Amino acid sequence: MIEKEDPIISEEEAAQYDRQIRLWGLDAQKRLRGSRVLLAGLGGLGAEVAKNLILAGVKGLTLLDHEQVTEESCRAQFLVPVSARGQNRAQASLERAQNLNPMVEVHADPGRVEDKPDDFFLQFDAVCLTGCSRDLMVRVDQLCSQHRIKVFCGDVYGYYGYMFCNLGQEYSYVEEKPKVVKPSGDSSDGSGAKKAKVDPNETTMVKKTASFCTLKEALEVDWTTEKAKAALKKTPVDYFLLHVLLKFRTDKGRDPDPQSSEEDGELLRQIRSDVLDALGLSASLLNDDFISYCFSEMSPVCAVVGGVLGQEVVKALSQRDVPHRNFFFFDGRKGNGMVDYFGPN
Amino acid sequence: MVQLVGSLRKELADSLYTCKVLVVGAGGIGCELLKNLVLTGFKNIEVIDLDTIDVSNLNRQFLFQKKHVGKSKAQVAKESVLQFCPSANITAYHDSIMNPDYNVEFFRKFMLVMNALDNRAARNHVNRMCLAADVPLIESGTAGYLGQVTVIKKGLTECYECQPKPAQKTFPGCTIRNTPSEPIHCIVWAKYLFNQLFGEEDADQEVSPDTADPEAAWNPEEATARASASEKDGDVKRVSTKEWARSTGYDPIKLFNKLFKDDIMYLLTMDKLWKKRKAPTPLDWTQLENKASPQEESPASGLKDQQVLGVWGCCQLFKHSVETLRSELREKGDNAELVWDKDDPAAMDFVTSAANLRMHIFSMNMKSRFDVKSMAGNIIPAIATTNAVIAGLIVLEGLKILSGELESCRTILKERFGMVAPDVQIEDGKGTILISSEEGETEANNSKYLSDFGIRNGSRLQSDDFLQDYTLLINVLHTEELERDVEFEVVGEAPDKAPPPQSNPEEVNSITNGNKDSAQPSTSSKAPADEDDLMIVDSDEEEGAPSSSATVTSGTKRKHSDLDSDKSSTKRPRTDPSAAAGDEDDDIIALD
């Protein structure tokens, strides 16, 4: 799916990407250069992901967003000019996004994710969904993974954020490991002197594979089994918080709004109890504390989650380095980040 | 339900509107930080950076575009931010923070100072200014996939200079001049050579064979004889490398034959050096020229810089770069000096070729210009995402500080005994390890009881600080008589910090371009343990081990040193990546 690698790296690319080529290598950079990515949602998190992928040097990035620019959006992200109120958010973000790196093909699409036909998604190597409803994410994830397209989802709710990925049932990648140098006993010059020393910095690439489940499977873990109940102690509550916030989004068609914090707070409390109840769990698992901290998209949280998510996309496109499997949760109040797996074993 | 302004409680949002903050540095972390600050609602920001924009910055310093190359970072950063947040009140200084204009009064203006620096000198300076002005400082650094954030507050936490930072890596003069064994030794030699020939001559940067090398002498008398002989060596020694080069008109072939043939032959006469080492093989220009195979085709698939040249290729590169540098020198006039710059093509070519020729002579695999540049130029690989994450964490810490929640910040608290990386084992004959300085190794022990480990009244623990010369023997005694909520009490003469270090002079030439500057283990012999000086009295067999779990930040890890992103280090080996996944640490896990 990644376009046939153009072997030539131009001088311009070599100069601009120098510092990252020195980190992840030329092969990885070439793979990035052949990749097309779809990014849905240009809110705070979306803008961060867009910036990170454009700077990394992907071949193309499509910004898909049907929403309009509001006063809130101007505060939330840095790609939209203040004069763009009323315009489509993807189109308003286009110019600044493109200026981040003229070598990337950046497109803006004002459409809705749900209206896109199946084959729309097939032109991409990776799809990244932000601000989408649970059902929509599940559907797109199902479709894409059938076609071996890598799927990423992420959102930020106030101080909290998460990222999910599905890289397919058989994802192959390489991991860089230091080379083990065995000292050789013999020497060709017969003098008994040591052979030429091997540079201690030399590393070798080890091939690995990993298996990922669908978003549907990840969200539909059965907590009523004995095994699950035992695992509950070590389970980050962020997972359940995610369920609550996704339910809010499905029920209200939007995220908690600071303008209606009272009513939304009440609703969140109720949803929390309903969700945990439906999962067969105690409502005390998630106390009321979170409620006043999940409004709006907090910029530093977008930066953290967007940074992690962006880097995961880079890793997956370049098929290099150990991927996070399969969730990353960030709690901005504690400053904690956590990687965990949810899904069938 | 509290009143919210966006994500923040109104009180906090209001304080952001009025407070003044300082960002020191407008590079990788700085750009991300400025963006986060204005989007979070900080209104009054001052930013300072002495640097100008380079094309290699553009892969991550997103406030800059190609058209800005050469301009002031602080200035352009401000302009770019105003584009998406015109109401922000930003003051930009194209200046060094170490300029005396930025005195304590200046620092006192701010409620918060955030470092976004890449060198130790500036960090030390800002650290002291913030202590003097009593302003909280958020220190941070990134390198490759790794990064860290720490809050420094006078009276509450240790400061940036409280812990000794690992010294920059240096190599002994004789290694550089006589017995190199790694590419870096040859690269350092080549940089010295550049200065000796074209730049400012430095007595600590000699390139000729070192006759006073203690290893070269068969017996002590011979060493003394050699040392004094080298001083009396008459005219040849007295003439500096530069003078000699001048006398030949900087003839590349003459230079080549002296450096890579004659000097090597001289080294071979110091036969003791080669008893256990592979001896160097001198090169001869004419021989190489005759043997040279036709120019190999440069493969198109890689970066031109990443190819490794053949020996003759290096010879030619050496010749061309010498000729170019010679004209550069002539253009500058009498007594001119060139300053080495990794981005100056001829200077870089010179070091690449000279270092490689030396590597070849000493039987090392040669390196590409790309790799030589990394080492010679102390290039630290860098990407946007690491900086984005760290800058996000910085702002979150900033919000805690402004909310008055200092205790919840990422800090290194002053520990009772001033240990940095304690390794505690039980003197039970088995050396059972209770606490390990290796992060994560003994986390599981933190919630256990002392009795779980068989620790009773009269048990002894030995605590050895991995990073300092400091060992304590702790006697554990049981008592029923402690106050409520007091878990333990220390009695006896307990030190609160390590004894002063024993001085350990090393004969090294300090160089400013270290390579992998991993934390150096202590080389001095252990100070005698402070035996029987203190006892810990325990109320009952409560939870084990205080102290090390208070260390929240990855302050001084065993495997790699502080991420100062110092320009004296290069790519670090990544350690403990996904092993950390799932850990309940406060450290962010995602950095791979």
UniProtKB/TrEMBL annotation, chain A:
InterPro entries on file: ThiF/MoeB/HesA, ThiF_NAD_FAD-bd, Ubiquitin-activating_enz, UBQ/SUMO-activ_enz_E1-like
Q: Where in the cell?
A: Nucleus
Every copy of the THIF-type NAD/FAD binding fold domain together lies at 17-336
High-level lineage:
Eukaryota, Metazoa, Chordata, Craniata, Vertebrata
Q: Which family does it belong to?
A: Belongs to the ubiquitin-activating E1 family.
Native source species: Oryzias sinensis
Query: Can you say what this protein is called?
Result: SUMO-activating enzyme subunit 1
Write out the ranges of the annotated region (Disordered): 180-200
Give me any GO biological process, just one: protein sumoylation
Q: Where is the composition biased (Low complexity)?
A: 184-193
Q: Which SUPFAM superfamilies does this chain map to?
A: Activating enzymes of the ubiquitin-like proteins
Q: How does it assemble?
A: Heterodimer of SAE1 and UBA2/SAE2. The heterodimer corresponds to the two domains that are encoded on a single polypeptide chain in ubiquitin-activating enzyme E1. Interacts with UBE2I.
UniProtKB/TrEMBL annotation, chain B:
Pathway the protein acts in: Protein modification; protein sumoylation
For bias type Basic and acidic residues, the affected ranges are 229-241, 561-575
Comp. bias regions, Acidic residues: 530-544, 582-592
Q: Describe the location of the Ubiquitin/SUMO-activating enzyme ubiquitin-like domain by residue ranges.
A: 410-483
- Which stretches make up the THIF-type NAD/FAD binding fold domain? 9-405
The annotated regions of Polar residues compositional bias extend over: 504-526, 546-555
Subunit comment: Heterodimer of SAE1 and UBA2/SAE2. The heterodimer corresponds to the two domains that are encoded on a single polypeptide chain in ubiquitin-activating enzyme E1. Interacts with UBE2I.
Q: What is this protein called?
A: SUMO-activating enzyme subunit 2
Which organism is this entry from?
A: Oryzias sinensis (Chinese medaka)
Q: Taxonomic classification, please? A: Eukaryota, Metazoa, Chordata, Craniata, Vertebrata
